[in-house]
Structures are given as C-alpha cells and as structure tokens.
C-alpha cells in the first residue's frame, strides 16, 4: 500500500503559500501603488508599475497605497476690494487629478500621506539658479509670486504677498473691507 505523502505535502505547501500572502482589492477609478518592505530578500521600495482595478496578491510585507485618479474639483469663494475701492466677489475653481500610470512616481517622490515630507525635506537642499518675480494667473487678481528656477526648469515657488493680505493691512473702516479681511467667515 502506498502512502499518501505527496498529496499531504502539496496541501501543506499550498496552505503555507496562501498563509504567507495577502490580497488587496483596488476599486474602479483608483490605482494601487505597491510599497515593498521585505524582511530578508529583495530591494524594497515603490513598484514602478501601478496595479489597476481588481484584486492583487501580495507578499505579507508589501502594502498597497490607494491613489484616487478620478478628477476632483476644488472651489474657493473670494470677496475682496479692488484698488479702486470697488467690492469684487468671485469664485475660483480648480479641477485636478493624478495622471493614470504616474501614481508610483508621486508616491515615491512625496510619500503615501499628505503630511509625509519627501526624502530630504520639502526643500531637499535644492540650490536654485535664480528667482523670477511674476504673478499668478489663476484667478485674474495677479497676486505676486516668485518662481524658483534651476537648470531652466521651475522647481518651486513662493508667494510674494496676497492681495487679501494687502487689503486687510489698509486702515479702512470695517464697512469697506470684505468679510474675510474683517476676520469673519
């Protein structure tokens, strides 16, 4: 009589493989970025190819960062006083999304959480070649900004002052200031 060791061995090995793996589900409109953190073997880090909608089998030390690639709309309402003391009220809208397939680059560069500073900090010790004074063209109020340029490429910017801050610093009666400048929301 033959012993059934081969069948039991396959069951044990199959159970071991399943026990040492994990599964993640990625929803529609999202990408999964695999961040590998091996205990012993492997290089670790962010997998450069994102996982698309569906289920993904993972090593137990790998976790998935869920990135929403659907467009998101941000809006802001502004009440300001123009240079001619005319009240101006407008809404600014921005629709943004992560480009499909580029989410691993985003996670590798800035981390999985908004509060995580990238390696080397937000400045990352970049020495800029020059700073260019210009204005923001987003809402038409042309607030001043300073572009930081290195190797003929914009690597950052900083605000030179906000129009609302200038209006709030004027010594005008409360009736002339917009609600945000008065400290009200």
Please provide a brief summary of the model:
The protein has 185 residues and is of the alpha+beta class. 16% of the residues lie in helices and 37% in strands.
Structural account:
The protein is an alpha+beta fold and 185 residues long. It has two domains: 19-124, no CATH class; 126-185, no CATH class. The protein has three helices and ten strands, in the order αβββββββαβββα. It has a three-stranded antiparallel beta sheet with strand order 3-2-5. β6 (72-81) and β7 (87-96) form a beta hairpin. The protein is elongated. The chain starts with a helix and ends in a 16-residue tail after the last helix. 8% of the residues are buried.
Main features:
185 residues; alpha+beta; 2 domains; elongated
**Quaternary arrangement of the chains shown?**
single chain
Beta-strand percentage range: 35-45%
Q: Tell me the span between the first and last alpha carbons.
A: 86 Å
The strand order across the widest sheet is 3-2-5
What's the rounded overall pLDDT mean? 75
Helical residues, percent: 10-25%
Shape: elongated
Q: What kind of sheet is the major sheet?
A: 3 strands, antiparallel
Q: What is the tally of helical segments? A: 3
Q: What's the total number of strands?
A: 10
Report the order of strands and helices. Answer: HEEEEEEEHEEEH
Secondary-structure class = alpha+beta
Low-confidence stretches: 163-173
Instruction: Write down the Rg.
Output: 26 Å
* Total domain modules: 2
